[in-house]
């Protein structure tokens, strides 16, 4: 499956952004989808995941601010990001795969990756 992330940009603290991840090539709803991010000088970290049935898991630092969703009819996943903070600055990557339960928050659990979209939050 090919993934194309979009929607990043430069915003101020407290603003909102919505990222999109468009999928093509294989049946989208066969896959568990996820967002990861990588801040400058840091390792890539898990942000959120959504199962085929819509169950969601978030990293603690974004709970209550970010919402992951998917539209299987449009082969698209979203990440609504509200109340953005400077620490959210990173390249955001979307991923698709069929990870086992213990790897849903690990990047090695996902086979397919988008190219990343940069989110910059200024203070």
Topology of helices and strands:
Blueprint: E1 2-6, E2 9-12, E3 17-24, E4 32-38, E5 45-50, E6 56-58, E7 66-71, E8 76-81, E9 90-97, E10 112-113, E11 117-122
Parallel strand pairs: 2-11
Antiparallel strand pairs: 1-3, 3-8, 4-5, 4-9, 5-6, 7-8, 9-10, 9-11
Summarize this, please?
The protein has 123 residues and is mainly beta. Helices cover 0% and strands 50% of the residues.
Task: Explain the overall architecture.
By secondary structure, the chain is mainly β. It has no helices and 11 strands. A hairpin with a 4-residue loop joins strand 7 (66-71) and strand 8.
- How far do the termini sit from each other? 37 Å
Average pLDDT reading:
95
Q: Indicate the radius of gyration in whole angstroms.
A: 13 Å
Structural class: mainly beta
- Report the total helices: 0
Q: Number of DSSP strands?
A: 11
**Main sheet attributes: strand count, strand direction, barrel closure:** 7 strands, mixed
Low-confidence spans = none
How helical, in percent, are the residues? under 10%
Question: N-to-C SSE series?
Answer: EEEEEEEEEEE
**Could you say which overall geometry the principal axes of the C-alpha atoms support?**
globular
Indicate the proportion of strand residues: over 45%
Task: Using brief descriptors, characterize the structure shown.
single chain, 123 residues, mainly beta, 11 strands, four-stranded antiparallel sheet
